[in-house]
Design brief:
Layout: E1 2-5, H1 11-24, E2 30-35, H2 52-77, E3 81-85, H3 90-103
Parallel strand pairs: 1-2, 2-3
Length: about 110
């Protein structure tokens, strides 16, 4: 089991990671864990923006969310797990991910 705590919001870094993950995932169980940013979310899922700058932040967050979702989809197609972690419960989230892998008898 290889657990990567990383951020894949940069598309170039994500593509480089995908290339390496394709090679390693044939022999190992890989899980990518990334901290969840509160502003990276679908466009209409949060509170309504109250200013022009808030609209811009919402749009930027949506674009990052869409990119991250696409990266997650690509990771799943090569058999790599992906988990978003909340900063306040990072330890519990990682233990839950490990327990889920053990429960499914992947290791």
């Amino acid at each position: 089991l290889l657990l990567f705590l990383t951020g894949l919001s940069d598309p170039i870094a994500a593509e480089a990671f995908l290339t390496g993950a394709k090679i390693v995932s044939s022999k190992h169980v890989l899980v990518v864990a990334a901290l969840q940013d509160r502003e990276v979310q679908p466009l209409f899922s949060g509170a309504l923006p109250d200013s022009v700058s808030a609209i811009h932040r919402c749009l930027a967050g949506h674009m990052q969310w869409a990119t991250l979702l696409e990266t997650e989809r690509k990771l799943k197609t090569i058999g790599v797990g992906f988990r978003r972690l909340r900063p306040e419960t990072i330890g519990l989230d990682l233990v839950d991910e490990y327990a889920e892998i053990k429960r499914r008898q992947i290791l």
